[in-house]
Structures are given as structure tokens and as C-alpha cells.
Amino acid sequence: xxxxxxxxxxxxxxxxxxxxxxxxxxxxxxxxxxxxxxxxxxxxxxxxxxxxxxxxxxxxxxxxxxxxxxxxxxxxxxxxxxxxxxxxxxxxxxxxxxxxxxxxxxxxxxxxxxxxxxxxxxxxxxxxxxxxxxxxxxxxxxxxxxxxxxxxxxxxxxxxxxxxxx
Length: 166
Fold this sequence. Notes:
Elements (H helix, E strand, L loop, with lengths): L8 H4 L4 E3 L1 H23 L13 H25 L1 E3 L16 E6 L2 E8 L10 E3 L3 H6 L7 E5 L3 E10 L2
Parallel strand pairs: 1-2, 4-5
Antiparallel strand pairs: 3-4, 3-7, 6-7
Helix pairs in contact: 2-3
């Protein structure tokens, strides 16, 4: 559900992360699990520096893994500090596409439905598109009946048929 693979320092600095309640809980759980793993690694028996005249490969591997783990923990801490929960918009704004909206659109005669979420929860295969994606950006703030044209390599018309919030 949460896409942390593409989470890198240069992509997260100065950024606000919009998350559903489920997404926020998943990140908190992942964060706590990584902290437990780190604790087990540090408290356990660490490989010794020298096994012979050469640096022990097990030692290097251990500290590479620990460094990667520390980086992931720091990234998740940053995300948690900069997370904003996606909430149900006020009634007067529910007629427009906002974060958290399930949108039914007509795309060249074909009906499609997706939910607008933050980048960490986006998964187009599951019908969850990012508010920062070209389609997500184009639909935000639009109303039922409006048609928007997205020009990428090909021109695609999206006619908004329905907006739902849960």
C-alpha cells in the first residue's frame, strides 16, 4: 500500500506528505518495526572487525545493512513529522475533486474510477493516483460535468461523471 521504495532524501526534503488514516498507521507500524530491528542488530553480537589480516566481509556487510536501516528510519521520521492526514472536505467543497475523492471519469467513452491520494499511497494498478501525477493535478478542484484535457504524448479527455467521498 505504501510506496517507500522511491523514497530518497532528495525527494522528501521540504515536502508535505498527504496520507490516509490507514497509510499513516502503516508508516507508523513500519517505523516501529525498523526501530525494533535496529535494536536487535545493535544489541546482538556484532561481527568483529578483524577476522584475519583483511577486513571481515561479514563486518562490512553488517555495517552496510545498519547504515541502510538508519537511513530508512530517518526518512520515515521525516515523513511522520511532515505528514498531513487526508480528511473529508467540508460539505461545501465535496462537489469538487479534492484529496481523498473517488472520481468516476469518462475517458474516450470508457468509464474509469480512481481515488486521489498522496504520492506515498499512489498505485495506479489499484486505482489510486497521486495528487502530483498529471491526471491528479489536472482533476483537483474540478467539478462533475467538467471535461479536462491532458496533453501528454497523446491528448486525452477526462469528463468527470461523479465525485464520492467516504
